[in-house]
């Protein structure tokens, strides 16, 4: 009886680990979509409403889900408190502060960094071009992330169960 319970716990534990690892792919897609929406909102705030950057960041952060909203609110606070010299620095510090909550990879962060390097540095037409380029690059990343999710989510779930079953077979 004790042996059966131990085997069941091993299988359940390994399956749980497989589900948790596979869920990272799903969370990345969710966060990329949220980042895409937030950049569209930021574009509207800056280009059409002419909101200042700190206020635009505050407005966007209120409309975003966790942890993307935290990126904007942390960057805003750094800018308002004059702790940084540029928007790029504010976002870099904000990303470092929130990196344990983010499931974005280096390419995703690079797209956001490229946007913040040029944010507020040109006229309206230049800002529109920068936003459009960023959104186009982000769409490519979303498509890549979705294909990775579709390919790997089930694999890691089944792999967790399979590893648990193999361990149980070896132990018996």
UniProtKB/TrEMBL annotation:
Keywords: Coiled coil. Pfam families: Spore_III_AB. Residues 128-155 form a coiled coil. It comes from the Bacteria. InterPro entries: Spore_III_AB. This is Stage III sporulation protein SpoAB. It comes from Clostridium tepidiprofundi DSM 19306.
């Amino acid at each position: 009886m004790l042996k059966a319970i131990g085997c069941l716990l091993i299988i359940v534990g390994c399956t749980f680990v497989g589900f948790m690892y596979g869920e990272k792919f799903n969370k990345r897609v969710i966060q990329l979509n949220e980042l895409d929406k937030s950049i569209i909102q930021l574009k509207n705030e800056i280009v059409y409403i002419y909101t200042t950057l700190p206020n635009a960041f505050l407005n966007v952060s209120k409309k975003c889900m966790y942890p993307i909203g935290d990126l904007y609110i942390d960057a805003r606070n750094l800018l308002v408190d004059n702790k940084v010299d540029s928007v790029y620095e504010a976002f870099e510090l904000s990303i470092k502060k929130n990196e344990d909550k983010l499931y974005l990879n280096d390419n995703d962060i690079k797209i956001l960094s490229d946007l913040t390097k040029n944010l507020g540095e040109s006229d309206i037409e230049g800002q529109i071009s920068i936003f459009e380029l960023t959104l186009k690059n982000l769409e490519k990343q979303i498509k890549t992330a979705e294909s990775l999710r579709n390919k790997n989510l089930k694999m890691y779930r089944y792999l967790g169960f399979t590893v648990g079953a193999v361990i149980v077979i070896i132990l018996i």
